[in-house]
Amino acid sequence: xxxxxxxxxxxxxYPYDGLSPFISxxxxxxxxxxxxxxxxxxxxxxxxxLEKSRSQQLEIDIKSTLKELSFQLGGHILHSLFWTxxxxxxxxxxxxxxxxxxxxxxxxxxxxxxxxxxQAASSVEGSGWAAxxxxxxxxxxxxxxxKHNVNLYPNFHLLMVLDVWExxxxxxxxxxxxxxxxxxxRSVNWEEIEKRFQKITG
Length: 202
What we know:
Elements: H1 25-55, H2 62-84, H3 97-107, H4 110-122, E1 128-134, E2 140-146, E3 157-163, H5 170-173, H6 177-184, H7 190-201
Antiparallel strand pairs: 1-2, 1-3
């Protein structure tokens, strides 16, 4: 195995039908096996291209190659995080513990946090993500990520992400991004996000 084959598609923490009706089995299979797998494949191909250029002293366009690598690897990292911050839907689904207290302190209430996060996800320009992050200033922040690698804040810890590319929901929701976001709240894996928050904050 070469260094360029380091990245692999992670296992899903639930069966393909495990997120229904929020995400159908067909939608999840395509998103995971086609889109996410493509980011893994393209990342490894770009790393192989870089290795080959070094070993064979080949001239390549470093700027465009690194820009493309940022996009492809960003897609892999964000999707890997996305799958693990989801769980089978349930009606009463609220954060608990330390994260619950931190969200209320930062946003005033869980309802206000969900309102702002929903607005962030709804208003991402083109394709991208909404994210809950923990900043180096020790504060929770909602951010937007365009594509996979634009508007990222250096040194912010990503706690929760929501994919609002059309490929995440088009089979189930057509062009209804708002309906997809509303369904997301019933499938947030707050236990996993709490673990991430505890690990970061100690």
